[in-house]
Amino acid sequence: MSPRSAAAPLRVLTLNIYHDKADWPARRARIVDGIRALDPDVVALQEVLQHEGLRNQAEDLAEALGYEAHFFSVDPAGAPKRYGNALLTRDPVLHAASRALPPLQDGRVAGRVDIAVGARRYAMVVTHLHHTPEGGAIRAEQLGDLLAWLEETADGVPLVLMGDFNAPSEAAVFAPLRADFVEAYASLHEGGDLARTTLNPAFFDARRQKRIDHVFAQRDAFDVREARIVLDAPDRQGTWPSDHFGLLATLVPRPLPQTARAWEQRALTPDARARALVAAMTADEKFRLIRSDFGLGVDGGPRPEGALGSAGYTPAIARLGIPALQLADAGLGVTNPANIRPGDYATPMPSGPMTASTWSPEIAWAGGATMGRQAWRKGFNVLLAGSLNLQRDPRNGRNFEYAGEDPLLAGTLVGASVRGIQDQHVVSTLKHFAMNDMETGRNTHSADIGARAMHESDLLAFRVAMEVEEPGAVMSAYNRINGTYAGEHAELLDRVLKRDWGFGGWVLSDWGGAHSAAQAANAGLDQQSAGEVFDKEVWFDRPLREAIAAGTVAPARLDDMATRVLRGLIATGAFDHPPRIAPIDVAADEAVVQRTAEAGIVLLHNPDGLLPLAKDVRRVLVVGGHADRGVIAGGGSSAVLGRGGNAVEGIAPTTWPGPVVFHPSSPLAALRALLPQAEVRFVDGRDLRDASRAAGEVDAVVVFATQWSAESVDLPDMDLPQGQDALIAAVAEANPRTAVVLETNGPVPMPWREDVGAVLEAWYPGIRGGEAIARVLLGEVNPSGRLPVTWPTGLEQLPRPALPGLGFDPPQPPGDAIDYTIEGANVGYRWFAARGLEPLYPFGHGLSYTTFAYDDFRVRVLGPEVWAYFSVANTGARRGADVPQLYLELPAGHPTPVRLAGWQRIELDPGERREVAVRLSPHALADYDPDARRWHIPGGRYGVRLARSAGDAGEVRRIELPPRTLEMRIGSAPTAAP
Ligand code: BGC
Fold it and tell me: Which atom of ligand 1 is nearest to the CA of 387?
């Protein structure tokens, strides 16, 4: 799309397409033709419907028109029938947001998208305010709510408010609007010739001069050139189908005030603002912006002046109003490395697989929002978060930071978390791009994999996340990919990420992951991180200056690097909304942790219903895992110390990547609190005989087993360390009423599985983990987590059973390459399916204290969309959440047998039954063609399976899909960018 002139008038059309699906085909064609003839820039649609057998009407129209659709609904995702409003735009969308407007009646919602028209930015808002049953008057409280939202989010971007207000223009209720907005007004009733109005007399109330559609444009930003009523025609009987018609307005943007500091104009796009800034910068300032310093200081020396104390710092450029970059690690909470900011604790979040086990984008968003809020209140504006490497091997030491093995699930949830962070005006990264799937030899090893396989696995996860939320920054990985360092990988950084996908932010190196000046800069690395401490040289200072002087790097590239940093800051709001120091809200934020853990703990095994433990249990023994003190966490740069510090000090390693941390959230204490009448004893499990004797004396035993894992080192094997398997076996032998709680990086073999009564996977559950575990054990919470990874029986089932160099003191040195061509895109369950292997637990597995039944499963192909419809019923006696999953079975001969294509987390009361609609992800349908550089659905006969896990035969429906190519670009970078 060619950039349009900034001064171009905006043609906006607001239209209520109110009707039900029966007459849609006929009306659709009429509406498409009508809109096309009017040639609007933006269409605000009200009363848009998505229903079984009917595509989302806004998306359907948008596709026919070549526009982009944004649909806003208060009906939950997964509801079979969703009402809402939509905005169709033909200019690039910078950002979308929405707000429900209570009192709600069939989907009242306001949505906003910010668009870039040339260098100008506009906020377009669509709404539909319902009339009261009493008489068609707009509800004042809804309008009040809408205005409050607009005020809250007012950011100097010129605003156009469109929609169906269902009230006459003169209504007093509009008074608060009039101060700031001018109305684009047209009336059919003017001139008094009611006979010629286009209204259905049944709807029209002459006395009230009722009008439906309104366009309000921000008074100081626009002049109204034209407003007219358009569209639609009476039916053959001469009756108008409804009281709805369209209003087209032409708005002429007023010229922006002349200022030398154009970048301060919020009416300009982030890109235009960033370019204006760069045009005002000196070369030295640009060179300063494209590198950060280690925020902890060199070799324990003083930290850089102005640095709060965190992983990275770039000083402010005060004369231009460019804020300092304060970059903090926040894989699992806002970090305070080595307690450099004494006593400044943050909330330790549950590990990545825990959040992924919830299968809930909403919970993932809340986790991100918690970290973003805390960061902002601590003064940080960039979070090194969004950890998204795929779990290809349970031994990877950093699996606890990631979100499992499936690109769609991981990308969706990590994208939601990044959105949560950035909604607080804090930049998030996505990291580590790409293929840093093992830690062993991470600074040098080459991850070897074919292009197609990489695009359909690890890269797809990033792509999916970027579609949910474009991060301000992406961190390149340490490793090499097919021989080339990630930070020098022109194909991955410049071509795929920036050009094919349209990523508009900046790429920063991992700490120690920059290896050159010219090569890295030309490949697409934009910012070097803490090079003075971690890299051989500060490449992006003197060496890069020399390279530019010598002509090996174009000066325009330096501008691009600086522009991208600024663009990331501006687009996320970090530039305009600098942090304000304030205390964190410990209670509210810990509630998010507990909710995440309660939704993410996975009940793996419970054959005879040992869990939930009976509330009248008399004597309980708790064994091991330091459960008397807390819950374990992982080590490395993501480690967070929460209130109360480390509950178990002194466990080796006490230095990097340690210390081993237990958060002070004791499952024992939580169990005691919930079982006041019982005797709950604890033995630490060091003495097997002692533990097994005590186990024989109680009604039930809960054994806690921990597996510490950390960045920079992989686990030597899958086993529980320190003889914990023997402890569990001994205790279970003494008392089969033994439940095992695992606090692990990921899957461990369970040689004792058939001898215990239950197994819970509690991952690293975060600072309220003890409470969450206790509540699940006792049935206060019904477990609903589903595995985001396949649980192998042991190493023998992995693509690479033997890998040299794992663990702290490996007997063999690591190899310099990891061969991922073995499984390629078939990560996790796809590998198991391709090889016909039976895991201990399949991907997606998780039990509940209630039971669910699926019924009425049907699949429909609606144009380019594939929808699955079914019902879920809670057939047990407890409220609980289920996660029905949809798997796509690919045509015979396809290299990948099966892909997760969709799911829906749904919470039901006993006896409750609900209809669910799930749109299959186009990513599951499409293959990547590396030669054509495109995503393509080859077409053919596919199966869609509704199942409880990847291992469940479920029910399959067959569909025929025609071939189709998908859109490639997803980011917001202007197409013209270098
Ligand atoms: C890790 C990154 C982290 C960075 C800064 C590196 O060792 O790989 O994830 O953000 O350090 O602490």
Answer: 9
Ligand 1, pocket-test mutation among 384, 389, 414, 440, most atoms within 8 A of CB: 384
pLDDT digits (tens, 9 = 90+) for 111-134: 999 999 999 999 999 998 765 544
What is the rounded average pLDDT of the residues 516-535? Answer: 98
What pLDDT digit, counting tens, does each position of 414-441 carry?
Answer: 999 999 999 999 999 999 999 999 999 9
Sequence-separated (6 or more) residues with CB below 8 Å from residue 185: 169, 224, 227
Reduced to 3 states (helix: H, G, I; strand: E, B; else coil), residue 940 is strand
The finding on whether 510 has its CB within 6 A of some atom of ligand 1 is: yes
Amino acid symbol at 228: R
| Distances 414 to 13, 253, 353, 430, 469 between C-alpha atoms, Å | 36, 38, 11, 8, 9
Q: For the sheet with 758-761, list strands across it.
A: 602-605, 758-761, 738-743, 700-706, 619-623, 679-683
Tell me what pLDDT residue 201 has. 44
d(CA 820, CA 389): 14
- 685-716 pLDDT, tens digit per residue, is 999 999 999 999 999 999 999 999 999 999 99
- Check residue 281 and report its DSSP letter: -
Q: Are 917 and 80 in contact (CB under 8 A)?
A: yes
pLDDT surpassing 60 at residue 515: yes
Q: Cβ distance 632 to 660 under 8 Å? A: yes
Q: What is the pLDDT of residue 33?
A: 84
Is residue 366 scored above 80 in pLDDT?
yes
What is the residue with the minimal CA distance to atom 8 of ligand 1? Answer: 510
Q: How far is the CA of 385 from the centre of ligand 1 (A)?
A: 10
Place of tokens 């023998």: 796
Distance between Cα 634 and ligand 1 center (Å): 14
Backbone angles phi, psi at 151, to 5 degrees: -65, -45
Beta strands 446-448 and 817-819 are parallel
Q: 636 C-alpha vs ligand 1 centroid, how far in Å?
A: 8
Instruction: Tell me what pLDDT residue 203 has.
Output: 45
The answer to whether the bond into 813 is cis (omega within 30° of 0) is no
Side-chain half-sphere CA neighbours of 879 within 13 A = 4
Q: Is 136 left (phi over 0), alpha (psi -120 to 50) or beta?
A: left
- Determine whether the shortest distance from the Cβ of 637 to ligand 1 is under 6 A: yes
pLDDT in tens, 313-357: 999 999 999 999 999 999 999 999 999 999 999 999 999 999 999
> Helix crossing, 542-550 with 555-571: angle to 10°?
130
| Distance (Å) from CA 662 to ligand 1 centroid | 21
Q: Indicate if ligand 1 lies below 6 Å from the C-beta of 327.
A: no
pLDDT of residue 35: 87
d(CA 96, CA 33): 27
- pLDDT confidence tier of residue 4, bands split at 50, 70 and 90: low
Asked whether 823 lines ligand 1 (CB < 6 A), one says no
Q: In 117-154, which positions are buried (b, 16+ CB within 10 angstroms) versus exposed (e)?
A: bbbbbbbbbbbbbbbeeeebbbbbebbebbeebbeeee
Atom of ligand 1 nearest to the CA of 432: 9
Assign residue 508 a region: left if phi > 0, alpha if psi is -120 to 50, beta otherwise? beta
Nearest atom in ligand 1 to the alpha carbon of residue 335 is 12
Six token digits for residue 103: 């009192």
Q: pLDDT averaged over the chain? A: 92
pLDDT at 597 over 70: yes
Instruction: Indicate the burial class of 103 (C-beta count within 10 angstroms; 0-12, 13-18, 19 or more).
Output: exposed
> CA 548, CA 543: separation in Å to the nearest integer?
9
How many CB atoms neighbour CB 37 within 10 A? Answer: 10
Q: Which residue has the tokens 């407890």?
A: 878
Residue 607 CA, distance from chain mean position? 35
Residue that is written with structure tokens 């490996």 in the block: 810
